[in-house]
Structure formats: C-alpha cells, structure tokens
Amino acid sequence: MLDSKTPQGPLADQWTNHKNNIRLVNPANKRLIDVIVVGTGLAGSSAAASLAEMGYNVKAFCFQDSPRRAHSIAAQGGINAAKNYQNDGDSVHRLFYDTVKGGDYRSREANVHRLAEVSTSIIDQCVAQGVPFAREYGGLLDNRSFGGVQVSRTFYAKGQTGQQLLLGAYSALSRQISKGKVKMYNRHEMMDVVIVDGKARGIIARNLVTGEIERHSAHAVVLASGGYGNVFFLSTNAMGSNVSAAWKAHKKGAYMANPCFTQIHPTCIPVSGHYQSKLTLMSESLRNDGRIWVPAKAEDAEAVRKGTLKPTDIKEEDRDYYLERRYPAFGNLVPRDVASRAAKERCDAGFGVNDTGEAVFLDYASAIERYGKTEANVMNLENPSDEKVRELGKAVVKAKYGNLFDMYRQITDDNPYETPMKIYPAVHYTMGGLWVDYNLMTTVPGLYAAGEANFSDHGANRLGASALMQGLADGYFVLPYTIGDYLADDIRTGAIANDTPEFMEAEAAVKDRLEKFIGNDGDTPVDDFHRRLGRIMWNNCGMARNREDLTQAIEDISALRDEFYAKVRVPGKLNGYNPELDKAGRVADLLELGELMCKDALEREESCGGHFREEHQTEEGEALRRDDEFTFVSAWEHKGAPKDAELHKEDLVYDNIELKQRSYK
Amino acid sequence: MNLTLKVWRQDGPEDKGRLETHQLSGVTGDMSFLEMMDVLNDKIIREGGDPVVFDHDCREGICGMCSMFINGEAHGPGRGVTTCQLHMRSFKDGDTITIEPWRASAFPVVKDLAVDRSAFDRVIQAGGYVSVNTSGETLDANAIPIPKADADEAFNAATCIGCGACVATCKNASAMLFVSAKVSQFALLPQGQPERKRRVTRMVEQMDKEGFGNCTNTGACAVECPKGIDLSNIARMNRDFLSSSLTGE
Ligand SMILES: Cc1cc2nc3c(=O)[nH]c(=O)nc-3n(C[C@H](O)[C@H](O)[C@H](O)COP(=O)(O)OP(=O)(O)OC[C@H]3O[C@@H](n4cnc5c(N)ncnc54)[C@H](O)[C@@H]3O)c2cc1C
Ligand code: SF4
Ligand code: FES
Q: With respect to CATH, is domain A507-631 assigned 1.20.58.100?
C-alpha cells in the first residue's frame, strides 16, 4: 500500500499546517543546493523561477528553441480560481467539490483541496506580473463558465490564456536567468535520470543541436515534462509532446499512476485525411455560447453528409440538441467525458454530419442572435432588422472568440459565423502520470513531478481550465515549499559529482541506444510506426474500451514494437541536429507506454470519468463506477516488459465528500 | 497537386548552403504547409536521403516555432497566419515553391530551415518582466482596476508569438516590432510603470547588442506579422526610449 504522506487534521487546515511544519533551508544554504527542472511549461517555468527566487541554483531544460514555446502556450480557454468575483456562490470548497466530482471520485481529497486554496493566489500573482486578463468595462476581471460547474470562475485572455500565463511565467524565468540564478538549456532533451544511492541526483541530456551527450548533477530533479496524449498520434498536443522524461523515470523506479485515464475533448476539428499530423482544439469556452446538435432524422443526416442539405436549412424541430435533451441541468456544459461519449453515441447511431460520419454541429446562430439583441438594446436601437441584429451579434462573438473562429476558418475553409462548425472528440490531456505523494515527490527520493506529468489532481476526468491552475499551483506555490523538506538533509552534502560510475553508466547506455537507432538497417520512417500505434490506441483504448479489444491491443503493440526496432530507418548523424533521431527515441517510449495504458485499462474493471469500459455502464449508457472494489489509484512499478508491470494501490479515502453516482441531469 | 519545391539546405552556420529541387505529387488542398513538408520528408527518408530540418511544434499558430520564408514572404502568402496555418489550397497544381529560412545575422542558421532565435530570449532577459517574486501575498487581483481599453491594448501587444517574421521581413533585419510589443504590454499596465524607463532602455540596448538592424519606418514587419502587432507599438517605444534617455535612466 502506497503512503501519500497526506498531513493529519481537518482538510481545510492541512496545507497551512503542513507549510508551518515543513523544514526550511536557510538562504545561505540554498546557495549550496542545485535543482534540475526538466520542462518550461507552466509547471516548469513557474517552479524554476520560484526556486531561483528562493535562492537555489537551478538548471532548466526544454527541447524547444526557447522556454516560451512549451506546449502550455497553446492552452486556449482559461484558468479556474475560487475568487467569487461574480458573487455567484463560489468558494474554495465549491471548487474543491466540483473538481473531485468532475474527476469522478478518483482523486486525492487533500491535493485537490490544496489546489483550490492556492488558486486565488495564482490570479493575484499573474496580474502582478502583468498578465493581461480579460476585463469588464468597470476595469475588473471578467470570468466565463466551463463545463461541469454552475458558477463562473474561469479567468481568461481571449482564446490565448495559456499563452499569456506562460509568457508571465517565462518573464519570471527570464528575470532569474538574467540574474544567473537559472541556467537555461534550450534545445536539450533529457535522456535519462541518474540515481545515486537510491536518490535522484541528476540527468543525462542531449544537446539537440550538436548531438553532444551531457551529464548534469543536482541535489534534486523536478520533471515538468507535460502529458503523453501523443501516444494516440493524433491529438491536440504539440508535435513534440512526449512521455520520454516520465517514462525514463518510470524505468528507474518511479511508479506510473492511472496511465489509462485519458481525456478525450469533445470539441475538436474532425480528422480530414491520412496525412493529418495533429488535431486542433476548439476551446471548451465555445460551449458557453454554442449549442451542439445533430439532425433528428437519419435521412437529414444522410443528406447533410452527401452535401445535398445545408444545416442552416434544417428546421428547429428537426434538430436534436442531444446534450440539452439528455442533461437538462448542465446542457451543453456537461463535463468533457460525458459530452464526448454523447457525440460518439449519436455518430455511432448514424447521425454524424460529415463525410466520415464522425462529426456533430457546434452552432453559434442563437448566440449571435441573443448577443445582437442585447447590443441593440444597449444602443437603444428601435426595431433593428434581423440583419442588424446578426451584425451586432457577430461583433460580440468575434470579440470573445475571434481567434478561434479564425483558426476554424483557416483549417476548414468554412465560415463559422454563417454555418455551424463541425466538431468531434479528440485526445487532449492525460490525467495519468507519475505517481506523486502530497509533496509531489515520486517513489524515487529526490525526484519530483509537476504539472501534467504527474497524476495528481484530476482523478479520472479533468474539468476544463484546471490544468493551467494545477501547473501553476504546483510550480509557484506547492513544490517550492515541499522540496525544502527533502533538501534540508542536503545542506552539508556539497556539490554532486557528475563523473561517478552511476553517471558514466547512464551516459553509456544513452549513447548505445542512439547508436543502435542510427545504425539500424531499416527502411520505414518513424512516423509510420507512430501512426500505427495511434490507430491501435484510438480503436482499443479510446472513448470506449472492452476486455477483448484491450487484450488484443497489448499483443498488437508488443508486436509493433518488435517491428519498429527491426525496420525503422533513422537517417542522419549522431553528432548534429537530427529531429528524426529525437523522434525515434520518443516513439520508442510511447510504444512501451501504450502497452501499459492498455493493461491499466484492462485491469480497471469499472467505468469512471474518461475511462469507459463497455462492460460497466448504467442502463442509460452512463459510466458505472464500482466504488467497493476500485476506489484506489493504480500505481505501476516497472518490471521488464510493460505488460509485466506490478500494481501498487493507493486507497482513496473520502472523508469530506460523499461518493455519489455522478449526475449532470 | 504536383509541385516543384526548391528547398534551402544548409548543414550549419558555417556552411554556405544551397537550394535543392524536389518534385512532389499527391498534395491536397486540405494539407497544411507543414503536412506537405511531412510528405516530402517521408519520401526522402524512404528513398534513403536526409530529410529537411525545420522548426515546428504546436502547428496551430501559437508557439512561434515555425519559420519559413516561402516564395519571398515570411510565413508565405496570406495575412495573419503562421507557416503551420498556411494551407496548400493557397497554391495550385504545377506551382514552384521556394522555401528558405529566416535570414538575419542575429538569427544564424542551425540547419536547413531552422534558425537560432535565442537573441529574442536575451532581449526579454534584459528587462521584459515585472520584478515581482512569487510570494502568494501580492495585491488582490482586483485591487487595481484597469480600464478595459488599456487591458485590451496590452493584450493585443502581448499576443506576439516571438516568431521573428518581422525581423526576417525587414530589409534591415530590425527587431523593433517584437521588442516594442513587449515594451508596450507593460507600458500600458499599471504593474509595468515602476520599471518602465529602465525596461525600455535595457531592452533596446540588448537589441542593438544582438546585431539587429535599425528601423527605417518602412512598416514591412507589420504586414507580415502573423499576429497583427501594430506599428503604433514602435512609436510608443520610441517615445518611451527618448524620454528615458532624456531623464538619464
Ligand atoms: C490545445 C490545448 C488547449 C488547452 N487549453 C487549456 C485551457 O484552456 N485550460 C486549461 O486549464 N488547460 C488547457 N489545456 C491543458 C494544458 O495546457 C496543459 O495540461 C498544461 O499546459 C501542461 O503544462 P505543463 O507545464 O505540465 O507541460 P508543458 O507545457 O507540456 O511543458 C512541457 C515541457 O517539458 C519539456 N520537455 C518534455 N520532455 C522533455 C525532455 N525529455 N527533455 C527536456 N525537456 C522536455 C518541453 O520542452 C516543455 O518545456 C490545453 C491543452 C491543449 C493541448
Ligand atoms: S511582432 Fe509579429 S512577426 Fe514579430 S515576432 Fe512578434 S508575432 Fe512574430
Ligand atoms: S508550429 Fe507553432 S506557430 Fe507554427
């Protein structure tokens, strides 16, 4: 049984008490301590900047050409915080409750409560940094609503919230770089963690430009390397997003928790062809105002697919607003897992609206009309024409969602102001990740995980706008404190040598692996294998899973892995910039991870959140949890082949929230 | 579509580089420009060659990583889009497309189409921030109301993705649009005021040190900027810079 090290005492006091009792490292001693941070997304940048401000010597790594380009930059919709600026009854407790319920009761109460507590400081901090959040005319901060909640607590900067938050963290990081407190390694990839006497004491990194392999030592290592949605090949993640840092840690003893908990986001631009390299998200914020529907009559759907009927010509009564129909209380704002499954259900039943049959409509016509009427009132226009109303409404929609609408038009060549968008669910986020205790430490002493790379706060389904919150909570407000407790033992250790046998062996193993790739006598590009892995994962470990498919997938992935090592062609040289080589290493790790995900999904004989096992559903087709047997975190220990991993459990105890079947009706 | 591609190949900063010609078929209008490049690389790898190196990551116009000079234009034809957002429907069957890297002495070529833009990072490090530590005890976020118009304008300036198209487009390889966007974001917000003069002075100094050229007000940068960063930012920065040098900051 795993010990989460959750502090004693009442939930609301745990974090404060813990902070008060934590050991501190005095400023003079912090100068003697080195910390490595892998990743410069929201979690990594904020952690690196904060640790440096406190006085530690930080080395930060990212594989992009600048820390500002980490995948967090792409987050669109917003960030949650329990500010209750809208006076709609929000509170720390409500944010905590919504997040635990949204996660379908598979997250750790203490962590989620802490997240809700620090959420308000995040907004204060970002505003102090000059993050230009959206504001109302009165000059105060504006909010929008996201799925799975009934309050308006999401702060945003148009459709570029992640960009603005990351640029804030990047500026804090840049300030520390200029002071010499952070040494930044761009275009560097972590290839392995180095363990000395059972503790994480450094990493092996590759300079991606020169190809040089480097040994970096430190007293502690923080992984903030993001999520692994790219195991599905097609996802909303950036092309470079990968699991390698986390997976290398896993192979060195860190447990992987709930790897099968994947978030499939309901509103993405559908797949259009074989060459496709990624899918584009249409932010959840669009569900604030957009209405989702398919034709109610199968023959209309058929005609729309053939292109003989335009959606705008389908009468109101012939439309099926299926979310509003099935979930009247939350309507279009049900959580993501529910919305995605509902879309799949309609498309499987033959009501899909594009040529592949895998798309539904996201319609802004009524929002445009509603906003237009309000504007006309504000402007005191008497009897405005329909045309005028639509024009005013479009301007409002443009101001709120303009960049998303532009993006849609750019990709599809369709005008979403005039005709409903077509959307379909796509892989978006991974709730699973490295298992961490309350202090964000993995099962390897001195090895921490933050942001999407850890499993911590979202249970089986993450609510919208809470990943940004978690990344910044971990990096600004949690890790900088909790890491001190561990480092307090290291004030007399002195600098860690990077030429010990442990470092040399790890370095040699990395070189060996790279040489094998380059020397391989194959003829097939890396992407080919990645695409095939993605197809196996999507078909068998995607929105609906069952025993038979998962069992088969485990075999298929392991066979694909063998084929990969036999047939892959990695062109170019070792010592030079070689993106194909970088990709080969990442895909090799994804080929192992996929197998573990399927195993995890197979062993979790229940449905919860994004994990839907067809064998376990209610009569209405909703996820059926089995609390008696599965109220635990699955943490997997590496034992050779991924399918041989050993299960450890962390029991989840709910003292403050009653476990209920989730209902959004 | 069948295309003739003339692609810049260069082994490293010291190599002279050359254009290499490829014929590519089976391109469709729905492909993005980078997906077309994927198809090219797939073909090159299968034929035993060395694929073309280019920078990219998000493929949705926000990370600022992609950076191709296509037919003489930064990010290719079309306004308000990055290379990754450009679709092949902007081209037609039989077209010849020339693809080159950003060219500026402050952005040395890493390999083929990828360049080193770390000069931008160093300009930000020189002052592109508000000096506030992470204490958890800063002012409440709503303590200082900010007029919506100011917040919106600061946001518009802050949407710069740091791609460098402005530099690549400018005949002097000036970085004024990029630098002024960051300076403006903070100049428009109350949080940016205490360091306003110091910031602009230091950032401009660093910009000059990096070897970016002078601004001669041709405005080409703003035309090719995928995020529509406005020229008024440059004017604002010039005013701030002048007043800072007058007061000796
Ligand atoms: C399109 C999109 C929109 C989203 N919108 C929202 C939203 O509106 N609200 C919300 O809350 N969440 C949103 N999310 C989710 C959220 O953006 C991410 O979960 C979050 O930003 C992850 O941050 P991170 O710091 O953990 O990792 P990332 O930002 O992914 O950063 C990972 C970092 O690790 C580095 N790295 C990785 N591997 C290595 C290695 N081996 N060596 C060296 N460096 C490495 C990378 O270079 C990078 O710097 C969205 C996600 C997507 C895909
Ligand atoms: S100003 Fe425009 S062109 Fe220049 S770096 Fe920023 S986004 Fe790119
Ligand atoms: S790849 Fe990110 S902006 Fe083009």
A: yes
What are the backbone dihedrals phi and psi of residue B12, each rounded to the nearest 5 degrees, phi first? -175, 180
Whole-angstrom CA distances from A401 to A268, A290, A331 are 15, 11, 20
- The tokens for A454 are 């850890």
Mean predicted confidence (pLDDT) in A344-349: 95
Q: Which domains does chain B have, with CATH numbers?
A: 3-110 (3.10.20.30), 118-246 (1.10.1060.10)
Model-level pTM? 0.97
Q: Do A125 and B132 touch (CB under 8 A)?
A: yes
User: Which pLDDT band, with edges at 50, 70 and 90, does B248 fall under?
Assistant: low
The pair of three-digit structure tokens given for residue B167, joined into one six-digit string: 């530099």
- Closest approach atom of ligand 2 to CA B159: 7
Q: Whose atoms come closest to the Cα of B234: which ligand?
A: 2
C-alpha to C-alpha distance for A135 and A494, rounded to whole angstroms: 49
- Is residue A425 within 8 A of residue A197, CB to CB? The reply is no
Chain A contact set for B35 (CB, 8 A): 275-277
> Does residue A542 have a pLDDT over 70?
yes
For residue A481, pLDDT over 70 is answered with: yes
Which residue in B has a C-alpha nearest to residue A480's C-alpha?
Answer: B134
Which pLDDT tens digit goes with each residue over A135-171? 999 999 999 988 888 899 999 999 899 999 999 999 9
For the packed helices A526-540 and A547-567, what is the interaxial angle rounded to 10 degrees?
180
Is the model's pLDDT at A550 over the cut of 90?
yes
Rounded Cα gap, residues A109 and A655, in angstroms: 8
Which of B80, B120, B151 lies nearest to residue A135, judging by beta carbons? B151
Q: For chain A, what are the domain ranges?
A: 267-427, 507-631
The rounded mean pLDDT for chain A is 96
* Dist. CA A110–CA A6, nearest whole Å: 7
* Residue B19: both structure tokens together: 């254009």
Residue A279: pLDDT band (50, 70, 90) is very high
In angstroms, what separates the C-alpha of A26 from chain B's closest C-alpha? 16
